[in-house]
Structure formats: structure tokens, C-alpha cells
């Protein structure tokens, strides 16, 4: 039973090493996953943490998103699709790099041929009515963005959410069985 509970984890950032409490999984660079129970509901929170001056214990910030148990399980069930989307986005990036290095003289477009830049800039997955996972590219890096969308303005992105880098997404996928085991442990 004790193997289910996350032990005190340690991470490292520019400012030095830090510790997080139990039930917290460190994804890297002060981005952590916390499993907690509020009243009868269980939540999985993906959140940025911060260090207080003179302390090495990381505390959660407001920046992030809490998923209920059903949303968490939906994220777990679509993880392979999200992983495939990250590979597609990375392949698009390498194609665009190749096109830029060939030069403009060799990029003469024949009549009727479409440009690849018309492809959508993100791939979306749904967790619930207002919550989505988008895989997109910013500059040269692929992000997995888990975010709430606003109903007010045709489902525009809200500030509630977190964008995971590729290494953070990989670490989250590795920790998913441990996090799910902790969720099941808290259900009892």
C-alpha cells in the first residue's frame, strides 16, 4: 500500500534543489501533479509550483488546472492519440525546416499545388464540454496544452490550464499508472 503513495520527491531548478510533499509527482522544472480529495471528489491537479525565498519546499501556485476523476481518466485513455499528435507536429516542424533550408528558388509552386502551411496549427482532443487538450507548436517546440475553454467567446482559450513541454508530457505519461493507482487508493 505504501508503494502507491508518492514519496517526497526532489527536483532541481536554477535556484537549487527543492522538495515536494507526498501525493505530488514532479514532472520537471517546478511543474508538478498533485492528487487530492476535496469533500467526496478526487482531483488530479497539474500545476506550476514556486519556491519561497530561503526555503527548499515547493508550494503550488494558481497557474494550472485541476481535473476531476472522469477528466483524468479521459486524459489517460487518449494518451496514445496525444503522443501520435506530438509526433505529427514534430514531423511538420522538421518538414518546414527542410523547406526553409532549400531556399526560395527551389520552392517554386506548380499550378494547382497546395502549400503545406495551410494545415491547422493544432490538434485538439476533448476531456469534457469546456476542457480540451491541444497539441500545438510554438517556435520550434511542441506543447501539450491542457486547458479550459471559455463558452462566452466561441470557445477561446482561458487562463486556466497548463502547457507541457515534450519532456514534461513524457514524464506525465510515465507517471500515469502511479497517479491512477493513487486515485484508486483515495476512492476507498
Automatic annotation (TrEMBL):
Residue ranges constituting the Transcriptional coactivator p15 (PC4) C-terminal domain according to the UniProt record: 32-78, 125-174
Localisation: Nucleus
Annotated coiled-coil segments of the chain: none
Membrane-spanning residues: none
Keywords annotated in UniProt: DNA-binding, Nucleus, Transcription, Transcription regulation
GO cellular component: nucleus
A molecular function (GO) term: DNA binding
Record GO biological process: positive regulation of transcription initiation by RNA polymerase II
Basic and acidic residues: bias regions: 92-110
Predominant subcellular localization, coarse grouping: nucleus
Domain of life per record: Eukaryota
Region of interest: Disordered: 92-119
Family: Belongs to the transcriptional coactivator PC4 family.
PANTHER family referenced in this protein's UniProt entry, alphabetically: RNA POLYMERASE II TRANSCRIPTIONAL COACTIVATOR (PTHR13215)
Name of the protein: Transcriptional coactivator p15 (PC4) C-terminal domain-containing protein
Amino acid at each position: 500500500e505504501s508503494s502507491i503513495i508518492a514519496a517526497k520527491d526532489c527536483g532541481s531548478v536554477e535556484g537549487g534543489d527543492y522538495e515536494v510533499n507526498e501525493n505530488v509527482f514532479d514532472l520537471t522544472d517546478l511543474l508538478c501533479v498533485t492528487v487530492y480529495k476535496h469533500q467526496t471528489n478526487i482531483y488530479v491537479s497539474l500545476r506550476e509550483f514556486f519556491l519561497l525565498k530561503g526555503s527548499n519546499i515547493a508550494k503550488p501556485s494558481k497557474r494550472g488546472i485541476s481535473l476531476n476523476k472522469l477528466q483524468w481518466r479521459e486524459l489517460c485513455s487518449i494518451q496514445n492519440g496525444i503522443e501520435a499528435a506530438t509526433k505529427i507536429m514534430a514531423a511538420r516542424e522538421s518538414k518546414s525546416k527542410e523547406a526553409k533550408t532549400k531556399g526560395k528558388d527551389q520552392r517554386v509552386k506548380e499550378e494547382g499545388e497546395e502549400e503545406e502551411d495551410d494545415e491547422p496549427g493544432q490538434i485538439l482532443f476533448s476531456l469534457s464540454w469546456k476542457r480540451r487538450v491541444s497539441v500545438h507548436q510554438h517556435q520550434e517546440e511542441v506543447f501539450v496544452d491542457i486547458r479550459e475553454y471559455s463558452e462566452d467567446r466561441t470557445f477561446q482559450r482561458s487562463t486556466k490550464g497548463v502547457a507541457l513541454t515534450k519532456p514534461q508530457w513524457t514524464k506525465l505519461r510515465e507517471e500515469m499508472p502511479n497517479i491512477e493507482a493513487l486515485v484508486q487508493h483515495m476512492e476507498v
